[in-house]
Every structure is written in structure tokens, then in C-alpha cells.
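Changelog note: in this version the structure field was regenerated for every chain. One regenerated record is shown below for reference.
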Amino acid sequence: MKKILIFTLIMIFTLGVFVFADDLTGKEIISRVDEEMKVDNKFMEEEMILISGSGTERSRGLNIWNKQGQDEDKMMLKFTEPANIEGTGFLMIGDDMWLYLPALGKVKRIAGSAKQGAFMGSDLTYEDMESLGNTGFSNDYDVEKLSDSEIEDKEIYHLSLTPTDNDISYSKLEIYVDKDLFLPLKIDYYNNDELFKILKTFEHQEVNGYNIAMRMEMENIESGSKTILKISNVEFPEELEDEIFTIRNLERGM
């Protein structure tokens, strides 16, 4: 009798955990995604490959620093190559953004209305850089959980996100989240309910306890162009100095 009782309790506990894990709401899932994508301090070396609709390719090197704070998140991005854009930089502090172009020798503040524009000729907008690099999705979208499915034999949560902020350019996002990693495998971006862009992530690796997509591809459906981001090095320092995230540092170029 005692063995039966113990077995019953184990089964209840096991099933309870299973049901709880698979019964997350859409809001809970997207919050987990934001948590997985954010870290206190991160430095990355990346290659950005721009592929035009006709197939022409251009490559750029860049370094990115991210710092998460209690009041605001920060990101500094600097291009390292080729020579004609070396030293070009981008700074984000909370909702504020600045761009430095060495050819002009001055910093330009990016207005809220300009966040929907292409970032340095890529298929990512300033708005995309903000959501993927710093802010995440939880605070700016209402979330509906759709039917679960699979992508390349991986079980995924399928979410539909509708913006709560009129300043967001997309009418809807559909995000396909890996159930094990809680990272987006694919994001469909819609304008006026028509598919506009597709982001896919690849080569997921665990680095110092963090799950990272080492390769991302953003495709513009209308133009046929594509932007590929490949991480060659990623580090998680205990601390990043606040001096990194200043307009003065932005103006220093490299």
C-alpha cells in the first residue's frame, strides 16, 4: 500500500510538472524569450553580409557591446571594416539612439520617426536592432498563443504578436520559439497583414551557460535582399564600463 501511494505521488508530481511546462501562456513564453536573449553584459564580434536582390554581396565587420541596467539598457555598435565605413558607430541608451558617421565628423540623433528606416543599408531597421538587441518584445506587443508545431524536428511554440504602440511599424509578428531553448527559430514580420520580412536563426550554441544563435538571416520578401549576421566571438564580461556607452566614445570611432 505504501509503495502504491509513493508511486501515485511521483506520477502526480511528474505529470503536474509536465502540464505546467506545456501550459505556459503566450505572455509567459515571450517573457522567457526576452530573458534568454538578455544578459547583463555581452561583447560580440560579428560579420554582416549584405546580399542584394540581384545576388551582389558586401561584407562588414562590427563589434557590439550590450549592458542591461535597472533603469535602461545600453548598446554600442562600431564598424571595423571595410575602410570606407570603419569607425561608424551606433549608440542606444534606453529609447534614445545616436549615429556617428566619420565622413561627417559628427553625431546624429535618430528621431523616433526614423527608427523604421534601414540600419546602415541592411534589411534590419533601427526598430529591429532595438527589439533583438535590447528591449525584447514583452513590453510592446499583445501575445496570442497559436497551435504548437515543429521546425526541422524541433518542437516549437507558435505565437502571434500585435503591437500595443502605434509607433511600431509592423502590423503583426509571428514568432516560432524553440521549446527547449526558448529562443526564436523564426520570426515573420507583417506590414498591413502581408508578409514583409522573415528572420531565421541558426547554429545555436551554449556559451558560458547562455544559449546563443551564432547566425541570423533577415530576408526582405519584396526586394529579395538578405542580411546575414555571423558571430565569430562572444564574451560575457562581469562588468562593462559606463564610459563605453557615451557619445564621447561614439565620436572616437575605432
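Spot check on this record: Residues 2-22 form the longest helix (21 residues). Residues 31-251 form a domain with the outer membrane lipoprotein receptor (LolB), chain A fold (CATH 2.50.20.10).
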